[in-house]
Design brief:
The structure holds 2 protein chains of 2 kinds. In chain A, about 60% of the residues lie in helices and about 10% in strands. By secondary structure, chain A is of the alpha+beta class. In chain A, strands 3, 4, 5, 6, 7, 8, 9 and 10 form an 8-stranded antiparallel sheet that branches. In chain A, strand 8 (about 295-305) and strand 9 (about 305-315) form a beta hairpin. The relative contact order of chain A is 0.09. A two-stranded antiparallel ribbon of chain B has the order 1-2. In chain B, helix 7 (about 225-255) packs antiparallel against helix 12, helix 11 (about 335-345) packs antiparallel against helix 12 (about 350-375) and helix 14 (about 405-410) runs antiparallel to helix 15. Chain B has helices at about 1-25, 35-70, 85-100, 105-145, 150-190, 195-200, 225-255, 260-275, 275-300, 305-330, 335-345, 350-375, 380-385, 405-410, 420-455; strands at about 205, 220. Chain B is mainly α. The chains are: A alpha+beta, B mainly alpha. Chains A and B meet through helix 1, helix 10, helix 11, helix 12 and helix 13 of A and helix 5, helix 7, helix 8, helix 9 and helix 10 of B.
């Protein structure tokens, strides 16, 4: 050891100081990065929650509003097979569908053919006759008069009107236009360039079709190459004649198809690259309408300044329409790809023009049970079913859970048996819910023979699932009551059961209730065990009691999510919103309970 | 019905017993051993408990007893029927009795239904008489024995203890019930399909023939593809959940201010409280098409029911589990360790990665194991977002199926209950139960041992 300091240590010291400074900077940088990772993780979790909620709410709000159509229904007693003084039973069972259809036909005279009539009747919901029936029952004096009844539109029309079926654009070309006829085939002559946009779109679409055909041809050519290679291998290895002949024919066929594809591609490209002239709108193209003089013309051929098509709604006259008095509407999704056809769009447009189509709040969603028709489906049946099931769960699991918790916490001797019970309860809390469903199926349905789909059985299965949660929460609440309370009660001469029942339990009750509410909230959202015991049936009626077949809200959501109709997506999201609001309510209740009544010792 | 009457009688017994005790003590409660209410409860228990017990047991068993009698006494002409035809006959009898549509109303069915109805009314009358007799007899006994010096409180408390012990054993009964029912049905399954083929077979296509000559009836019950599918989705879920959950827990327990914690912790609880059917719908509606769109834009071939979609959403669902359990574990590490590390000049991140995480590692591992067990047992997300075809693959873009999906689809279908197809669901349930049980036991013991180290 020496105290001598020379130039060499200084150099080393400088080097150490610079490397140590660099080290410190690196460590602080790593610290900042680590903190950033943590923040990112929290932000990601929050973002997922936000995306989930925004998607659900965005999809679901449209289900709360339903389009309705005003029909002027002539409630003719003869047509409805009603006598002069019909009683309520007769009014209830009269065939209202007839007058609904009459009203539709009266609005659009000139409909012929079964398919057109079916299309027309498809504008309104299948439950439209119930709306008329309700109006008649509310005021039997309307029999014999023409009464305006608001009926729900069918789910396809509703989806279309909400803009969920196809995107659309409307614009008013500059310049005037003149139609040549008022019905049937109509030619609209406009100033130059009025339809140029459409023409360009049509040609661009042809180019896109050509591109996709090109891809198809490319795949075909690759297939041909593979087949030729296979043929070569077969020939070399001396394979069977039949196989070689088959391959030969296949190659020929494919080559011909490739050639025809090439011709088609060339033709399409020529048409796409053309300027001026006219083009026909074919399949796979958007639908274009011209609204002029009160009528609607669906375009079939388009050129720069002229367009020809069919009048879906008759025009009032063939007068000259100035700039701004006529417009063009385009529906992006081609007619063949959507469920609402152009003729139906035209009819709805006419009704909208007369102010007979409105969007109203869908109160029926909260008042009716399930239905195969999306516009008629409601959530009330599932809400009542959930209510009965949860009441059963509460009535079974709360007493048993609290009693078990009291025993385990206050009275149980510390031996192997109670240890086993404790381990059991902790394990039961983590068993997958579907295993409880299997238990319910094997024991409650098969062994005891209880009714399927009944809220009682569902309640029992859910009670078994909620029991561990309640026991664990109650034990924690009981444990938090200080021993001084118990000792004071015992000192006053109370028995052990009296101590617990009169003093400890009431003080622990807020905690127990909080745990119970949280357990109930979990049970409200359970689906898998209820699927096993059969609560997945299609239940239309609102259940009236504990043993009527019923379904619960999560199962209803599951069933609607499986349905193919587009309108059910909105309904499912709306049902999820209802379920989540119930859950939020219960959790807020638990939090309020905890904040107001829980005492910290 | 009858139970309600017994309860009313028990309430009456309460008032009578209480009144009798007070009267016997000369109107004041001072000379009674227990509070007057206890004498009332004593009487009510004597009146109600035997009667209700008998009513309960009787009404549970009478259905099967009546059926056994009717079955044994059917005319000789029906002896030649096969088991299926006989059960059809019995269903007809039952439907006749309950007024439903009968498929084959022959004279024998009507005779047996009449017999059934007779036995039912006999049973109802018998039950009513026995129940009432027991209730009244109980009341008599109670009246006979109530005197001021009767230690009624002790008797009532003993009865309460029995009740509480019974309530506590329901947990054990539930576990026993689960294990027994699963074992029983799985045993019947393994009689039809050997266990080795089930556990080690590579092809899962559960079909059973309804008729002997049905084409395509050869069922393959090899469960390895299903286990592989479960494993794939669980791995994907863990890859999403563990980093996000662990880092969130670290951030919230070490770095976040009280304000941030008070906002983010409840929001994470919200993630845990959302029902899984909502996650499943979200996965099927939004996530799966989005992943498919991205995949096809890049040029991959993505199934519309890819394992990635289901696994990712399941991971999001599990984040709160990992996060809150890890948070507890990290908070439980003693401050002395942190102080020592800071004292040596470590930054916060170095303290966390070199001191706290290693100390908390057993607890975190326990948390992850619990999360894995939750992921394996999750049903609704995979039912709605994952596929049905058992596919043995490691490609997350393909559709796979899991144990829980198969259990759900096999039992929600319309096969009869005895076929190998539906019993396979119970075998799968058995495997699922024991795997999750094993994981839970290991996880809980690891967490408990860790807590012992520092407490």
């Amino acid at each position: 050891m020496t105290d001598a300091t020379g130039p060499a240590p200084q150099r080393r010291e400088l080097k150490q100081r610079s490397t140590s400074e660099a080290n410190v900077r690196r460590r602080y940088a790593r610290e900042k990065r680590f903190k950033l990772y943590g923040m990112l993780a929290v932000a990601t979790a929050m973002a997922m929650l936000a995306i989930l909620l925004v998607t659900i709410i965005g999809n679901g709000t449209s289900a709360f509003f339903q389009h309705e159509m005003a029909l002027d229904v002539s409630i003719d007693a003869e047509r409805l097979d009603l006598g002069p003084e019909p009683d309520e039973a007769a009014l209830r069972t009269a065939p209202y569908l007839r007058v609904v259809r009459d009203a539709l036909k009266a609005d659009f005279p000139g409909i012929s053919g079964r398919r057109e009539r079916r299309s027309l009747y498809g504008l309104v919901s299948n439950g439209a006759d119930f709306a008329v029936r309700d109006a008649v029952l509310a005021n039997p004096a309307v029999v014999g008069t023409t009464h305006r009844v608001w009926v729900k539109t069918s789910d396809d029309i509703d989806t279309f009107l909400k803009g969920q079926m196809t995107g659309s654009e409307r614009w008013q070309p500059a310049g005037a236009a003149t139609p040549t006829a008022t019905a049937g085939k109509v030619t609209i002559a406009a100033e130059t360039g009025a339809f140029a946009g459409i023409l360009a779109d049509v040609r661009a679409h042809l180019g896109a079709v050509a591109d996709s055909l090109l891809k198809q041809r490319g795949a075909l050519e690759r297939a041909i190459e593979r087949e030729i290679a296979e043929l070569g291998q077969l020939r070399a290895s001396g394979g069977d004649e039949a196989g070689i002949a088959r391959l030969d024919r296949a190659i020929e066929r494919d080559k011909q198809e490739a050639a025809s594809l090439t011709a088609e591609i060339l033709d399409l490209r020529k048409r796409a690259a053309a300027a001026g002239g006219e083009e026909a709108l074919g399949d796979g193209q958007p639908s274009y309408f011209v609204a002029i003089n009160g009528g609607l013309v669906k375009l079939e051929t388009v050129s720069d300044a002229e367009a020809t098509g069919q009048a879906l709604l008759p025009l009032a006259d063939t007068d000259h329409a100035g700039a701004g008095e006529w417009s063009v509407v385009a529906y992006r999704v081609p007619e063949a790809d959507r469920r609402v056809k152009d003729q139906e769009i035209a009819w709805i447009a006419k009704l909208q023009g007369e102010g007979r189509v409105e969007q109203r709040f869908n109160f029926d969603f909260f008042a009716t049970g399930d239905s195969r028709e999306p516009e008629l489906a409601g959530i009330w049946g599932a809400v009542v079913g959930s209510f009965f099931t949860l009441v059963t769960t509460l009535l079974i699991s709360f007493p048993i859970g609290v009693l078990a918790a009291v025993y385990l916490e206050e009275f149980a001797p510390k031996n192997r048996w109670t240890d086993l019970i404790e381990v059991n309860i902790n394990n039961l809390a983590a068993v997958p819910s579907i295993v409880f469903g299997l238990l319910g199926l094997a024991v409650f349905l098969n062994f005891f023979g209880l009714p399927r789909s009944a809220p009682v059985v569902g309640g029992m299965v859910l009670a078994l699932m909620t029991l561990p949660t309640i026991i664990i929460a109650s034990r924690a609440a009981l444990k938090s009551v200080p021993p001084s309370i118990r000792e004071a009660a015992l000192g006053m001469g109370a028995s052990r059961l009296q101590t617990v029942g009169h003093h400890v339990l009431p003080l622990a009750m807020p905690g127990i209730l909080t745990g119970t509410i949280i357990g109930m909230a979990q049970a409200l959202g359970e689906t898998a065990p209820l699927l096993m015991i059969g609560m997945v049936a299609f239940i239309v009626d609102v259940p009236g009691g504990f043993t009527d077949p019923a379904t619960v809200m999560p199962v209803q959501i599951y069933l609607w999510a499986d349905s193919p109709e587009r309108a059910f997506v909105a309904k499912t999201s709306a049902a999820i919103m209802v379920l989540l609001s119930f859950l939020v309510l219960m959790n807020v209740l638990a939090v309020i309970l905890r904040k107001r009544f829980e005492r910290r010792w | 019905m009858l139970g309600g009457v017994v309860l009313v009688l028990a309430a009456a017994a309460f008032w009578l017993g209480r009144g009798q005790a007070l009267a016997a003590a000369g109107g004041s409660a001072r000379h009674l051993h227990s509070l007057p209410g206890y004498y009332g409860f004593y009487a009510a228990l004597w009146c109600g408990v035997p009667a209700l017990a008998v009513v309960l047991v009787w009404s549970v068993l009478d259905g099967s007893v009546i059926e056994a009698i009717v079955q044994a006494s059917t005319p000789a002409g029906l002896d030649g029927l096969s088991a299926d035809e006989f059960s059809l006959f019995m269903t007809d009898v039952r439907n006749t009795v309950s007024g439903n549509i009968v498929s084959n109303p022959t004279a024998e069915v009507r005779a047996a239904a009449d017999h059934y109805r007779q036995l039912q009314s006999l049973s109802t009358w018998g039950l009513t008489v026995v129940g009432l007799v027991l209730a009244v007899a109980g009341m008599m006994i109670a009246r006979r024995t109530i005197v001021p010096s009767l230690r009624s409180r002790e008797a009532v408390e003993k009865a309460m203890m029995v009740l509480m012990i019974a309530a506590s054993t329901i947990a054990i009964l539930t576990t026993i019930g689960i294990v027994l029912s699963l074992l029983f049905e799985s045993y019947r399954f393994f009689l039809k399909v050997p266990a080795a083929e089930f556990l080690f077979g590579l092809e899962w296509s559960p079909q059973t023939a309804i008729r002997a000559d049905q084409v395509g009836s050869s069922g393959a019950f090899g469960a390895i593809p299903i286990f592989a599918g479960t494993l794939l989705i669980t791995v994907i879920a863990m890859t999403v959940a563990v980093p996000i959950g662990l880092l969130s827990a670290i951030y919230m327990s070490e770095y976040a201010s009280q304000r941030v914690r008070s906002v983010t912790k409840p929001l994470l609880e919200v993630l845990a409280g959302i029902p899984t059917v909502v996650y499943g719908f979200f996965a099927a509606l939004t996530v799966a098409p989005a992943i498919r769109g991205w995949g096809e834009a890049v040029g991959l071939d993505v199934s519309s029911e890819s394992a990635l979609a289901a696994g990712a959403v399941m991971g999001v669902m599990i984040v709160p589990f990992v996060s809150s359990l890890s948070d507890d574990v990290i908070s439980a590490v003693p401050q002395s360790l942190r102080d020592g590390s800071y004292g040596l000049g470590a930054t916060k991140s170095e303290t966390i990665t070199r001191v706290i995480l290693p100390a908390a590692l057993p607890g975190i591992v326990g948390a992850v194991l619990l999360a894995v067990s939750r992921a394996i047992g999750e049903t609704m997300i995979v039912v709605m977002a994952a596929g049905l075809a058992a596919n043995l693959t490691a490609n997350p873009f393909e559709a796979v199926t899991t144990v829980t999906v198969q259990i759900a689809t096999l039992l929600v279908g319309d096969q009869e209950f005895d076929s190998a197809k539906t019993l396979a669901a119970f075998a799968l349930g058995l495997v699922l139960f024991f795997v999750t049980l094993g994981l839970n036991v290991i996880a809980l013991s690891v967490v408990r041992k860790y807590r012992e180290k520092y407490d």
